[in-house]
Amino acid sequence: MLTSIGLAAARRALASAPPSRLALTSSSAGACRAIVHVSRAFSASAWARLASAATAKKVTAAKTKTAKPKPKAKTTKATKATKATKATKTSVTKAKKKAPVKKAVLKKKKPVVRKKKPVLKKKKVVKKTTKKAKKMTPEQKGRAELRELKEMALLKGPKMLAPNSWAVYVAQHVTGGDGQLTLVERIKTAKADYEALSAAEKESLAATGRANQVTNQQRRQAWIESLPYEAIYMANRARRQLARKLKKGRVYLLHDERLPKRANGPCSLFIKSRYRELSDSGSGQDIFRTAATEWNALSDADKKPFQDMAAAQSRKSNEEFTLARVAGEAYWQAQKSPAGGVSSGDASP
């Protein structure tokens, strides 16, 4: 049997030889019958392949004529680069096509946002601009001091009635008026009418005046007691200062038993102790002269008890007056406030 290499060589030889040469002798026909049978099948397929190869060469030759000339080295490099990029792109597209398996992601809970408390805005403190007090002249200071003293002196007390016959007559006849006469003219006519009154009529007016005095005293005392004692104390101080400033000879003080008393001297205490015994010796002036003479005749040892008593009264009186002054200043300081006020009447006491 022929080997595979021998068979292949025989087939090539048969395929390339013409058919006329294939006619062999009868002697060799039987020997090569098997080979011819095989070569027929092989030759037919070989001629078919030769024809298809010839047509393929023609087609490729036509394509090469129409195609552009290929670049030399650079084009080959470019084609290699493009092939590499195409390969990378294809790998990328393949990678893209493969959808990655998504892992289940747990959603985080949103943190609870606490509402902030509203911040209260601080109110802007507006500073009050205080006007500077103008400096007062000495005359202005004096007038202001007089106004304050008059207010403190309580010059306006309860309303008083007419205290005498003439005042009663004026109150009865001059208060009205027809409006045609002035007050001075009405007073003149009232004076003439009063002088023409009889004695009995004048006595009746005088009796009314005396009754009014008692009523006035009661009203004044009730008004004084309605005020604190420190207010009365400061009123008497203010009345003394007004009398000095206005140069008045007489001072009208308000009498109140609650006010502190001034201390007596040693001589005054001795005279008081001797007053009852000397009351039968004569008038008050005589009693005073006799007691003063006895005081001067006393020794120092006899005067000592009265001096000690006077010193104790003086200390006590000074303390009481100090307390009254402090309380009075606080009282009038409170009266200067809008809520404060002192009740007063229309007429002076």
UniProtKB/TrEMBL annotation:
<dbReference type="GO" id="GO:0005634">
    <property type="term" value="C:nucleus"/>
</dbReference>
<feature type="region of interest" description="Disordered">
    <location>
        <begin position="62"/>
        <end position="122"/>
    </location>
</feature>
<feature type="compositionally biased region" description="Basic residues">
    <location>
        <begin position="94"/>
        <end position="122"/>
    </location>
</feature>
<protein>
    <recommendedName>
        <fullName>HMG box domain-containing protein</fullName>
    </recommendedName>
</protein>
<feature type="DNA-binding region" description="HMG box">
    <location>
        <begin position="260"/>
        <end position="325"/>
    </location>
</feature>
<dbReference type="InterPro" id="IPR009071">
    <property type="entry name" value="HMG_box_dom"/>
</dbReference>
<feature type="domain" description="HMG box">
    <location>
        <begin position="260"/>
        <end position="325"/>
    </location>
</feature>
<dbReference type="InterPro" id="IPR036910">
    <property type="entry name" value="HMG_box_dom_sf"/>
</dbReference>
<keyword id="KW-0539">Nucleus</keyword>
<feature type="compositionally biased region" description="Basic residues">
    <location>
        <begin position="65"/>
        <end position="77"/>
    </location>
</feature>
<keyword id="KW-0238">DNA-binding</keyword>
<dbReference type="GO" id="GO:0003677">
    <property type="term" value="F:DNA binding"/>
</dbReference>
<feature type="compositionally biased region" description="Low complexity">
    <location>
        <begin position="78"/>
        <end position="93"/>
    </location>
</feature>
